[in-house]
Specification:
Blueprint (H helix, E strand, L loop, with lengths): L4 H17 L29 E4 L3 E4 L28 E7 L6 E8 L5 E10 L17 E6 L2 E6 L9 E8 L5 E9 L8 E12 L1 H18 L1
Antiparallel strand pairs: 1-4, 2-3, 3-10, 4-9, 5-8, 5-10, 6-7, 6-9
Helix pairs in contact: 1-2
Length: 227
């Protein structure tokens, strides 16, 4: 039997504060200062609310204003030179070798326990054998492991081409309503163990299609209740 609209609205109101806010912020890295003290390969280029959790991921900015320009990173032999962002002007590059894995993260508002979500992104790889003094030469096409509150939820698969943005996604079901920390960890090429340098851009969190409309209703109802 279909529930009356007012009953459904009450159910939505019970969860709307979390559902309305549980999203990735600054998913294309376009906002905020990444290198307040100037460009450095020894400083993490993770604009707020992103933060580095392992070593120093690199921010690329096609405009060159606050990040590595279209010339790439000189110390890395021009890693990702001439690479345009998937969305906007910025993207994050990070590496993995036999001795280290770079990683970065963001904490969102609580998810809805039992709700299905899809975490999507654009992913690229520079496997042209650069940056030998800095963990390279990077010849692999690695993967990106994704963790939710320290629990592994899946991996973004290897790229099929060099310097090409490819869509990647992971679908999972939230098991709790705690604040959600999503961590992205670079990993070496799983086929041959080669050091890998990858890029991510346009990271986004989307609830299951059926829930999206309900969450939209929840946002409206929350706004009305606040008024």
């Amino acid at each position: 039997m279909t529930k009356p609209l007012h009953v459904a609205a009450i159910a939505v109101l019970a969860v709307c504060p979390a559902s309305a806010l549980a999203q990735i912020q600054n998913g294309s890295f376009e906002l905020g200062l990444a290198y307040p003290s100037g460009l450095s390969i020894f400083t993490a280029g993770t604009p707020s609310p992103w933060f580095a959790t392992s070593f120093t991921p690199d921010l690329y900015d096609n405009t060159g204003v606050d990040g590595w320009s279209l010339a790439g990173i000189p110390a890395y032999n021009g890693m990702f030179a001439q690479m345009l962002a998937c969305d906007g002007n910025r993207f994050i590059g990070f590496a993995a070798s036999a001795t280290f894995s770079e990683a970065f993260a963001q904490t969102t508002a609580p998810l809805v326990a039992g709700q299905q979500y899809t975490l999507g992104a654009c992913m690229a790889v520079d496997d042209l054998g650069k940056a030998a003094p800095f963990g390279g030469p990077y010849t692999g096409r690695g993967v990106v492991d994704v963790y939710l509150n320290s629990g592994y939820i899946g991996s973004f698969a290897q790229n099929t081409a060099t310097y090409t943005w490819e869509a990647r996604s992971i679908t999972f079901v939230a098991t709790s309503s705690l604040p959600a920390t999503f961590t992205f960890v670079a990993q070496v090429d799983p086929t041959n163990g080669a050091a890998s340098y990858m890029a991510l851009d346009h990271i986004r969190l989307v609830p299951a299609p059926g829930a999206a409309a309900l969450l939209g209703l929840g946002g409206v109802m929350c706004a009305r209740r606040r008024r």
